[in-house]
Amino acid sequence: TTSLLCTRERVRHRMRQQFTGYKKDLPFAYSNEEKITLPNGRISNVYTGLFINNEFVDSVDRKVFETINPATGKVITSERGRLLNKLADLMERDLEELAALETLDNGKPFHSAKTYDLPSAISCYRYFAGWCDKIHGKVIETQHDKFCYTRREPFGVCGAIIPWNYPLEMQAWKMAPALACGNTIVLKPSELTPLTALKVAALCKEAGFPKGVVNVLSGFGPIAGAAIASHMKINKISFTGSTAVGKSILKASADSNLKKVSLELGGKSPNIIFADSDLDQAVKWAHMGIFYDSGQCCCAGSRVYVEDSIYDKFINKFKEHALNIKIGDPFHKDTYQGPQISLQQFNKIMSYIETGKKEGATLLMGGERHGDQGYFIKPTIFTNVNEEMKIMQEEIFGPVVSVSKFKTIEEVIKKAHLTKYGLAAAVFTKDITRAIKISNELKAGTVWVDANTPFGGYKESGIGRELGKYALDQYTQVKTVQINL
Ligand code: NAD
């Protein structure tokens, strides 16, 4: 190293003499720092030469070589990652503003928007920014005289239709992987909550996304949504919403250009609580499972099954917790439960509560409006329910939970499966063997014993998986290339 450093000036001198006709398209300053002008006009100082012992040094043999800007694939790939990270930076900068818009539009507590929805959406953009330069094909061994490989290619234009319950997160779950894989996107937010999608679109522009990469089409489902679903130039659609609309998206694809479809749909998820579980933990999570975000969560644990021997203890604690929920102004710092999204949704939930009463279930608490303005519903618990009841079969999408007892594992698994949905399930037990066995048995896309990604549904809860590396499969198609040698 010492000798290298000592010869540095000598080498520079020779280089000045012999390489004045250096061809690189950037000026070569015969020093180991180059000034490179970037497309946006900024100057980047890049150290060249060799990097030895934490220092940049010139080579002894005074040879230099050109670096060529390929202006294709990899440059754009790293640009994609940079842009997604830049968007995440801007969202961090505007976090309070975005959280406030989300609360105004959706009614969810500001505290939740700020500490859960925003950080989760931001980390989704950062996660997929990291994938941009790691999406590879494979080389496949074939017969002699053939060379075969696959490429992961983007679809081109992707459509995305999202619901109103987690507008920022749903946008991130779709946009981040679609863009990371090299697609462009036409996103339709719910007509009930378009604000943050538009705000994020403005941030995309500020971040420097090229024109046409991110498009937000706010509008009504049967018009704007249906136009996306049947568009001949949209090659892939990712939909999150109700099962009924999801089925219409699948039909529209079949009737148009067979666009590839992934669906994240509704749920009626069971929470199964065994006698050996930590009761306080089980109560806490079962409570959050149904009452978080006013019960407007696709994976809400709306059916709670409790082992017979601890049922009474559980129900007392569960009720006590629910009675302590702070309902009200979503901007108040102590509020846990805000309003339901709309009058229509409020009426739908209230009519399910009436149906439950008529079906013979016991209304343990709640079941009525809270306050005299807005669409607030008190946390509602039904007991004495059975699997035939409508309130045990249909997604209510509100703060309404049905709690029942079980005696054996076989019985509870059978009951857990008695709906058309299969989005999520939770199991509470200290017996890890039992936890694994029951997780294997349950027909649910996610079983919360521990981790929660990737995300998607069994049965009528959806097609495909979002998040994690699995999301990359949703936004690329595999091309096989076979070459005769
Ligand atoms: P929805 O199905 O009514 O609407 C969802 C989106 O589809 C909205 O943007 C809406 O405008 C659009 N839409 C409505 N009709 C359409 C049509 N004919 N063609 C095309 N688009 C149409 O659902 P919602 O009420 O907004 O959301 C609640 C539902 O979403 C619940 O069923 C919930 O379980 C589900 N959801 C699922 C997940 C998941 O990841 N599985 C996440 C959140 C919400």
What layout of secondary structure does this protein have?
Layout: H1 2-18, E1 33-37, E2 43-47, E3 50-52, E4 55-57, H2 73-93, H3 95-106, H4 110-131, E5 139-140, E6 146-154, E7 157-161, H5 167-180, E8 184-188, H6 195-207, E9 214-216, H7 221-230, E10 236-240, H8 243-255, E11 260-264, E12 270-273, H9 279-291, E13 303-307, H10 311-323, H11 343-359, E14 362-365, E15 380-383, H12 390-393, E16 400-406, H13 409-416, E17 421-422, E18 424-428, H14 432-441, E19 446-448, E20 458-459, E21 462-463, H15 470-474, E22 476-484
Parallel strand pairs: 7-8, 7-10, 8-9, 10-11, 12-13, 12-18, 13-16, 15-16, 18-19
Antiparallel strand pairs: 1-2, 3-4, 5-6, 6-22, 11-21, 14-15, 17-20
Bound molecules: nicotinamide-adenine-dinucleotide (NAD).
